[in-house]
Amino acid sequence: MTPAFLFVMSRHDISDEKWAVIGPMLEKKKSETRGRKRKDNRLMFNDILWILKTGAPWRDLPAEFGPWNTVHKRFLEWTRLEVWDDILRMLSI
Question: How many Cα atoms occupy the beta-carbon half-sphere of 71 within 13 Å?
Fold first, then answer.
């Protein structure tokens, strides 16, 4: 896995300007103190963008993005919380 300081933004990644609008919408409603530290929302969002833009199956997510099932679980969590609807509403204004 690539260390965070070596991360280079790819053409599939969200821009800083768009992240400033979307990022706060993805914050977890309550803070959990148990279990593993949660993966960064921006990294998860970029991974999901890669899947959506390429049309690849979840299991084909490149290994450098991390475990595909972690990304998929975050996608499902945001779907359950209707985050995608909020993002689309915000972007359509």
Answer: 23
- pTM here is 0.77
Q: Nearest to residue 1, comparing CAs of 56, 47, 48, 53?
A: 47
Cα–Cα distance between 2 and 39 in angstroms, integer?
A: 14
Q: Write out pLDDT tens, residues 29-85.
A: 555 567 788 889 999 999 999 999 999 999 999 999 989 999 999 999 999 988 988
User: How far, CA to CA in Å, does 55 sit from each of 4, 33, 43, 58?
Assistant: 26, 35, 18, 9
| Torsion from C-alpha of 45, 49, 51, 52, nearest 10 degrees | 130
